[in-house]
Amino acid sequence: MPGNKTPPELALAILAGGASRRFQGKQKMLIELGGEVIGNILLENLAPTFPRIYISVRSKDQALALVDGGIHLPAGASFVEDLVSFPGGARDDAAIFGLYSVLLAVQEAFVLVISADMPFVSPDTAKLLSDCLESDPDAVIPLWENGFMEPAFAIYKVQAAIPVIEVMLASKQYQLVKLASGLKKVTRVPVEAFKQVDPSLTCFINVNSERELDQARQLHAKRSGKKMK
Predict the structure, then answer these.
(1) What's the total number of domains in the chain?
(2) Residue 78 dihedral angles phi and psi, to the nearest 5°
(3) CA angle at residue 29 from 27 to 31, to 5 degrees?
(4) Residue 229 maps to a domain
(5) Does a structural domain hold residue 26?
(6) Sign of the C-alpha dihedral, residues 28, 25, 148, 101?
(7) Considering the domain boundaries, does residue 1 fall inside one?
(8) How many angstroms separate the first and last alpha carbons of the chain?
(9) Which among 19, 27, 101, 33 is positioned nearest to 68, based on CA atoms?
(10) How high is the pLDDT of residue 221?
């Protein structure tokens, strides 16, 4: 694919269903970095790369709250509400519920999943993962040297992931990191490889604490006025 464009069979899914317990329940997409909310930073940077974007939310009320809070949906972006019921009667705030709801809603063969509190995922880092799709894997997941995976910044093959998640939900296993162990063909991309396009590995920054929020604000301030690559 030319430039930073990703394959047409790949959609983007932003997992925004969980409110942040560390920020008084504030929606993660509405956390501000230098006057801009994280959600709009993500959408502005990634919309040119992904013609189809799904934003996972718990309910219609949450979607309305995000719009009221200033989220601007680009062309091709839409909200996907959580299902009313899940396999085995499961229900929790875990990200896997939002992912399952999105997988059932998409028409594309693959979905790149990112958490709503990862403001520095860039087109180049997304393409680094999508370049691995030529081998038709069930998942493409970044892997740290210590063996830790990044399941909330990964690509999943829709029809491969759905049945595995159904088994997980029915058995009350809600940790997204366990999804990979149920898939047959998983491509693990060493985190070191991301330094080719993101030398400081900022794409893996999660805003989960006040300290991380301060760091993200400082980084965003340095980048303001510059287009992310």
Answers:
(1) 1
(2) -155, 160
(3) 75
(4) no
(5) yes
(6) negative
(7) no
(8) 16
(9) 27
(10) 85
Q: Would you state the structure tokens that stand for residue 41, as one six-digit string?
A: 């930073």
CA distance linking residue 81 with residue 102, whole number of Å:
8
For residue 88, give Cα distances in angstroms to 166, 170, 181: 8, 4, 20
Q: CATH code at 176?
A: 3.90.550.10
One-character DSSP codes across 147-166: S-B-TTEEEEEHHHHHHHHH
* DSSP character at residue 173: -
The tens-digit pLDDT sequence of the chain (229 residues) is 445 667 779 999 999 986 555 556 678 899 898 889 999 999 999 999 999 999 999 999 999 999 999 999 999 999 999 998 898 887 777 899 999 999 999 999 999 999 999 999 999 999 999 999 999 999 999 999 999 999 999 999 999 999 999 999 999 999 999 999 999 999 999 999 999 999 999 999 998 878 888 888 888 888 775 444 4
Residue appearing with tokens 């464009």: 5
**Residue 179 carries which DSSP code?**
T
Contact 13, 54 (CB under 8 A): yes
Beta strands of the chain (E only): which ranges? 10-15, 32-33, 36-37, 53-57, 77-81, 110-115, 139-143, 153-157, 186-190
Please give the residue range of the domain that contains residue 159: 10-223
Token pair 């996972």 in the structure block, residue = 56
CA pair distance 209, 186, nearest whole angstrom? 31
